[in-house]
Design goal:
heterodimer, A: 8 helices, 2% strand, B: Rossmann fold, 2 domains, 6-stranded mixed sheet, 4-stranded antiparallel sheet, 8 helices
Amino acid sequence: MSDPGSLATFLRVTWLVTRKDLTVEMRSREILYTTTFFAASCVLVFAFSFVRDGRPLDAAAAGILWIAIAFAGTLALGRTFERERVNETLHALMLAPSDRPAVYAGKLAGILVLLGAVEAVLVPLVALLFQAPLFAHPGHLALLLVVGTLGFAAVGTLFAAMLVRARSRDVLLPVLLYPITVPVIIAGVRGTAALIAPDAGGVAAARAWIGMLVFFDAVFVTLALWTFEAVMTE
Amino acid sequence: MNGFDFERLVVDDVSRHFGRRRALGRVSFTCEAGTVAGLLGPNGAGKSTLLSIIATLAAPTSGQVRYGTASAREAGPAIRARLGSLGHDLYLYPELTARENLEFFGRLYQVADPRARAREALERAGLAERADDAVSGFSRGMRQRLALERALIHEPRLLLLDEPFTGLDDGSAHALVGRLRLLRDARTIVLLTTHDLDIVDGLLDQAVFLRDGRVADVQRPVAGLRERYRQLVAGGGRA
């Protein structure tokens, strides 16, 4: 048995919470289906607006991809914590014999996996509807999506956990989340645009945006891990 | 703090305010190992707030709770490893099976063989035949029995129960009383809140009466529970 306050316990609890969340989701498929359907609907609506005579607006694809990710992410965050609220299971997780940020890390990892699955549908859909060469630099695009989604979900997981007992949590989550994650969304949009539009800087510019996202991620994840115990203790 | 244990729970001058409202005012009492203690009082007396503070889910505004020699601030994870809790909500995942719920919490608490422990717990709860059914299909009584096993899967030193008899039929309530007696024999500190005084009369070794967030009386040993409750809490006896 490892020390309850050790790194090994932290990682074990993180893994257990992530695995539990994914098992619950595999049983219901509720979050996966609703977020994917919602994100695909957004892209479809934008496609009707921004694609005329088979020609999309320049660089619209990058913005629409990240807006769809942000909307889907907000929906997934809300539902993930709603599940923990209904049966007060978040209390049970808070009682786990480890540092409480391990629960945050576990929830964050579960949301990242879910959003990764949504993005696996979204990216080809946006590429198809907006005739965007999203797969011209697959490695760089994948890196942008990973670091951008991490930045968005890091803040979102903290806020969703904080708001879990608030009566108006569904309204408050996007109101708090979007202003703070604007830098992440902008970096994601500009980085993606650099990869798909020849005059937007190319791979070099995308790398610069990826570097900025890594910096945001480091700041957001550190702050969230640091504050989680305090904000979750009543 | 690995292997941390304690033989005494000390609630020392604990107060808790929510804004200007006082939920608890200078509450003090001690529970020794092998004690079943009741936190008794009307709705709004501060029982659940006190349980949350003892469970390390909430922090006191002033005062402290000591688990042996340690406080939650000094040794939160180690204390939680020795603490089991069952709230009015049962802390179970309805999408998971009974076995999966128990194994998940067993692993969370690092019990030696979570599968074997879950199997034993299911047999104790009389749910061995429903082990692989989703909890969402269980009755309230079945969930309550499973939730108690969940709270006990790591053999905690301190067990906190918030209204554990709610929704239980007579048979289940008496089975729970029997289980709590066994826990007392195993030197567990059981601290429970309840309004079912008839059920716990004869079970409690200690009764802490709360009124308006303050301790109205501490009885040990407990005698004439309902009458004392009526005097102190309902009738507004001495504080």
